[in-house]
Amino acid sequence: MRKTIIVSNRLPIKIVEDGDGYALLPSEGGLATGLTSIHAQGENAWVGWPGIILNDTEQKAYFSALLKEKRLTPIFLDDEEVRGFYEGFSNEVLWPIFHYMPNYALYDLENWQIYVRVNEKFRDLVLEIAEPDDTIWVHDYQLLLLPGLLRKALPDASIGFFQHIPFPSQELFRLIPWRRELLEGMLGADLLGFHTFDDVRHFISSATRLTATNNNANRLEEDGRTIVVEPFPMGIDSHRFSALSSEEKVLKRVAELKSNFETQKIILSIDRLDYSKGILQRLEAFELFLAENPVFHKQVTLYMVVVPSRDTVPQYRELKDQIDRLVGHINAQYGSFDWYPVAYFYHGYPVEEISALYNVADVCLVTPMRDGMNLVSKEYIASRNDHTGVLILSEMAGAANELIDALIVNPNNVHDIRNALLAALNMPSTEVNKRMKAMRQIVFKFTVQHWATLFMNRLEEIKAVQSNTRARLVGTAIENQIIARYKEAASRLLLLDYDGTLVGFQADIDKASPDDELYRVLDTLEAGINNHLVIISGRKHSTLEKWFQNKPYSLIAEHGVWTKEPNTEWRLKSGLSNTWKEEVGTFMESYADRTPGAFVEEKSFSLAWHYRKVQRDLGALRAHELIEGLRDYSASYGLQLLDGDKVVEIRSAEVNKGRATLDILHENRYDFILSIGDDRTDEDTFHVLPREAFTIKVGTEVSAARFYLKHQRDARVLLQKLAAETPSATTP
Fold this sequence. Notes:
The chain is of the alpha/beta class.
């Protein structure tokens, strides 16, 4: 049976030292909770680190067997691997860069090499339990290389990847020396998930600028495989936090806290010690609030929980010292013998204590500088069964895109946070209830279980589409069918596009001339008995004349404006007008003048605006603007607009490759037709050909063609094979 294999840095169960022995305990965090429902199904498995370094072989074997009963596969890392892979590269390069803190990044080659080695170690362990039809779901920044490593070993596997932290803009991401390797690893997945659309946009920008990957909206093309990149905002186990609020232990603790703080209002802040959480700015904003609003002295307390994290690392140790000093300063400046403005606790708490704090807090202050989602904000909302409480949320947290009824603030602006605190503490109860009800609807609809199900269903949809696409790929079976029909046929028509089909694209369009090998293949095909070879192109007729003047091929230039049969002169299609070209040409030149690398090519009855040399995103932007501007001319003069591969063309509407093809079919009958093309202009040809024709699209975009080839070079190989089976007039 097919199974799903979850792969994450940590297992949902950790091994901890317990006195003289060891114990298995559940791991903290939303990921373990969210994927439990998927892991529980069938024979699904989970691969990850159990959270402890074990050097004893017998211990490893014992725990492997114990965890295997729970369908958990542990990966055991040694001290060097933990330091280099997790503490080193993951948290000294990826974490600061992805959280927009490049000044904290340390580019250590040895750490990178260990990161590669550990990702390979994960791959090897997955391959021990994976079958070809399994689904593999890889999680987070520690395993960016793993999807690509698995793709090489299991080319047809269904692979998903989800990143739980932000993805930076490409200007920041490109600072990483090993950026291409990381991207190539991620592109091994079929579906890439992020918390927000901004993360999706940033990833696509990096992938298309730093690798040879092409995109169409949120779909990327990599080696003929379609990869989808989408946002999947992660939720929490909302019902669990709602139920915790009613537990006796929690209610008792709530009563104690309310008794301790009596009539004071509680502002709650819960964070792990990290420079991305905005803790210092939060304290500065609270200090400003106290300085400007003395009426709230002894009426409000900032209850701040900071969970220890990596405090042996210099940056974290320094942050901890700064927090300690700032808390001491605020309490000394504004406190009294019976009131401390900041109640500061530097340690972790069990979930029951956290639930009690959520229930007692009048305001929850969540202001990270950058955060993938931030689940504290959602846990607070799920805990407020009485619809009270105000959430102040950083606009830099992914949750801000969903929880729009929170008070959204810029975490860098202490005045903005100060204003939000004042608004929250003075907010009328009716507005508090209205906002909280709206946010609870979202939090209880988009739960972590909903998130996991949504991702897995989307991955299944994508693989179904890919399977359908693979069925149309010209592989061995379809290729043999084409060759067999070709050999049997008494009359054959070969309709071949030029750029992107017979030759690859060049930045300089005049450098895409035929090579000797192409001439040989075409000559052989044309020499075949009853073969009619037609090159049908958007190129100028003068260009085709220069390249093929002594060749016995039929030539169609400028999409059908000009035609030439062997040993005849070029023939111009009648009834075409050029009265529009001067006005439209001036307009198109104005776009070329302000777009470095773009130029206008004038053809007999069309104008083409080329932008292959233009900076990627700028070219697409200008092309879109140009198309919008040309629509009026198109309507006024009866012209046709074509949005091609790095070219925008406008031409007489009476001309297209489809009409030129119909003229050929009208004059002759063929029992074998092969048409190969790569762009939108070739779709006109595909549409008019009979159903039994072998129509082939070069590339994996949606097409009217029956079949497709991944690359231009594949078209050349197919033609070579047909040439090898071609009997010529001189064949005995």
